[in-house]
Each structure stands twice: as C-alpha cells, then as structure tokens.
C-alpha cells in the first residue's frame, strides 16, 4: 500500500484513495487493488465518500470526489493557477479532455484537468497518479528528466529512448492506445522562467475523434497552450 505513516487507518484510507485515483472501481476491484478485507475497504470508501473525497460515477463505481480538487485549489501552486487560466481555452479549441501533469519520481500526477461537456471523454481526475511508462504526457516529462530516471523507466516503458529523442527534437509527443485502449493523446512541455521543464500539458480523447496521428492535428495548439502556461509561470 505504498508508504506507511505508522497510523494504520490513515495508511489504509490513503491506499483506497490512491487505488480509486488510478481509475473508477467497485468494491471487489478495490479489495483486489488494496489487499484490504471487503468490510474494511467498504467502510473506508464509504467514509471517504461522506467527506466527498470519493464520489460515484454513473455505473456506481467509486471515483475521486470533488473535495480533492477543492482542497488542492486552496494551495498556492503557481502551476495550477497558470493551468486554470489556459486549460479552458484549450478545451474549447479541441473539444477534448485537457490535463496538466507534474512528475513526482517515477509517476506523473494530474494537477489540473477539464472535460468536454458532452460525449465520450478520457477522464483523468485531479490527483490521479499515472505511470511514466506509457502515454504522451509520460513521454514529455521523461524526455527532459535526468538520465538515471530515464534508464530506470525505459526498462518497463512502452516506448524507447529513440522516442524520447524525437520528443526533444520536435517539442511534443503523441500516443495512440498506449496508456488505455481506445484513447489517443498529445502533450507538450511546460517550462519555468529558467527554461526547465516542470510539467506536461495534454489533450486526450477517443481515437475515433483524435485520429491515428493526433499530433498532426493538435500539436500546434498544444505548443501554443504550453507557451501560455510557461509565460504565466
């Protein structure tokens, strides 16, 4: 269940939160992911739901609740603030889901996200932790990470070091059915005032709409949005 604080119930509750953040799930799958007994997993998830840290999707599965993003929004995070100013316009242009990711170790964390108002969408909740081994956002963040991190992640990645070289050369990355079947995405790097890559901004959606070469369609808009976020930093 990851790191342990020595406070058993807290560690278990966080294990539930992190598991649901990966993707919505029901009780049986939650037990499989966390290793918790059925009664314990249900009690913790129900308690987190009461506090709006978890919610339910249309199929009755638990998903990350609104209180998570509400709490995160209260923090003084320049990256999140910059994303809040830019992501709405990017969603309007593309009509797809948009996200902002930050790398934490060998994971990427969604720090901001917006979804289209209707239709199929790629839902990534704020706070979700995704692996660095697949997806255009992972490629962008890893392409500018140090060599040791790259070597460690590439051992299990669905892409190669050549892919990362291509990302650095052209300034954006794309993926098709790499992180999740049926989903395509495009991402570009966000830089701070020193030019260091601190985040990846992404557009994602069904392959049927994004197409087999999503970069050809949306890379220019992604680069413009990444530049706008960078300027605000």
Automatic annotation (TrEMBL):
Pfam families: HTH_IclR, IclR_C. Keywords: DNA-binding, Transcription, Transcription regulation. GO terms for biological process: negative regulation of DNA-templated transcription. InterPro entries: GAF-like_dom_sf (IPR029016), HTH_MetabolicPath_Reg (IPR050707), Tscrpt_reg_IclR_C (IPR014757), Tscrpt_reg_IclR_N (IPR005471), WH-like_DNA-bd_sf (IPR036388), WH_DNA-bd_sf (IPR036390). SMART domains: HTH_ICLR. The keyword Nucleotide-binding does not apply. It comes from the Bacteria. GO terms for molecular function: DNA binding; DNA-binding transcription factor activity. PROSITE patterns: HTH_ICLR, ICLR_ED. This is IclR family transcriptional regulator. It comes from Mycolicibacter minnesotensis. The lineage of its organism: Bacteria, Bacillati, Actinomycetota, Actinomycetes, Mycobacteriales.
